[in-house]
Design goal:
With about 300 residues, the chain is an alpha/beta fold. It is built from seven helices and 17 strands. It folds into two domains: about 170 residues, FAD/NAD(P)-binding domain; about 120 residues, FAD/NAD(P)-binding domain (3-Layer(bba) Sandwich), CATH 3.50.50. The strands form four sheets. Strands 1, 2, 3, 4, 5, 6 and 17 form a seven-stranded mixed β-sheet that branches. The chain has a five-stranded parallel β-sheet with strand order 8-15-9-10-11. Helix 1 runs parallel beside helix 7. It is elongated.
């Protein structure tokens, strides 16, 4: 039996492992896909404090090595269920593990556009985070796909960096707050295009343009970047009977990362929060580990 089991080996989970193991607790990290999480696919990270520039893979490898050096243990498997109780049972596809506390750091995944060329240009013009990658396109042209607050916030953020920003939405109405819509409409270098869908991405080694369709007519827009801002999908379905989720499927937990279930904590992108960045994932991992260590 372990003191703490951490579900998820991304930035939040591995940070929690470092803090927990350094506190002298026995720790198991269970990850079903890639240790390091989604950040491993990022060509560059330039917004993490004290690190000028590093690739996502280098960052993830370094964090994993740090957790390993702290003597955290690792299991590569997919978690299927948690049985709550004074002792928590974490079931996976390869067996069961028990612990006094559990930290859920399952993350969330970006909702994809599901269009031709999206996978090919991911990291080479296609991005799902304007704050993370916007600076790479300073003085260039960018397209934002979406119609909610995130899409309009991204467009406004990029307007201060890029020469031209297109915001493309498949409907004529928006889900975004009116104040954001008006700001975008009044921004000289943002062009809002409605009732339009993106059909295809084009380019060679990197993105150079998109094909759009409106009223059965196709057009090409030349662009250096496409930022998809159509939402995220939290990886919390299997926990819905254990901890309280909000209407979007995120785990409800405060800044101390405590959930509705005693001894179960949530950290990182799977938790309900307003900002999801590497820095906030690391902060959550530290907070969740500190709270979990206090209970075991």
């Amino acid at each position: 039996m372990y003191d703490i089991i951490i579900i998820g080996g991304g930035c939040a989970g591995l940070t929690a492992a470092v803090y927990s193991a350094r506190a002298g607790k026995s720790v198991l990290v269970i990850e079903g896909e890639t240790f390091g999480g989604q950040i491993t696919a990022a060509p560059k990270i330039e917004n993490y404090p004290a690190i000028g520039s590093i690739s996502g893979m280098e960052f993830a490898d370094s964090l994993f090595s740090q957790a390993e050096h702290a003597r955290a243990q690792f299991e590569f498997s997919t978690v299927t269920e948690i049985t709550d109780g004074e002792i928590k049972i974490v079931k996976t596809e390869d067996g069961e593990f028990s612990a006094r506390s559990v930290i859920i750091a399952s993350g969330s995944k970006h909702r994809k556009l599901e269009i031709e060329g999206e996978e090919r240009f991911a990291g080479h013009g296609v991005s799902y985070c304007a704050v993370c990658d916007g600076a790479f396109f300073k003085g260039k042209t960018a397209v934002v796909a979406g119609g909610g607050n995130t899409a309009f916030s991204d467009a406004l953020y990029l307007s201060a960096i890029c020469e031209k920003v297109y915001l493309i939405h498949r409907r004529s109405t928006f889900r975004a707050d009116n104040v954001l819509i008006e700001r975008a409409r009044n921004c000289n270098n943002i062009e809002i295009i409605t009732d339009t869908v993106i059909k295809q991405l084009i380019g060679n080694d990197s993105l150079t343009g998109i094909i759009t369709e409106s009223n059965s007519m196709q057009s090409e827009i030349k662009t250096d970047a496409l930022f998809a801002a159509i939402g995220r999908i939290p990886e919390n379905e299997i926990f819905k009977n254990i901890v309280e989720l909000d209407s979007d499927g995120y785990i409800i937990a405060g800044e101390d990362c405590r959930t509705s279930a005693k001894g179960i904590f949530a950290a990182g992108d799977c938790r309900r929060k307003s900002v999801r960045q590497l820095t906030t994932a690391a902060a959550d991992g530290a907070c969740a580990a500190s709270a979990a260590c206090a209970e075991v």
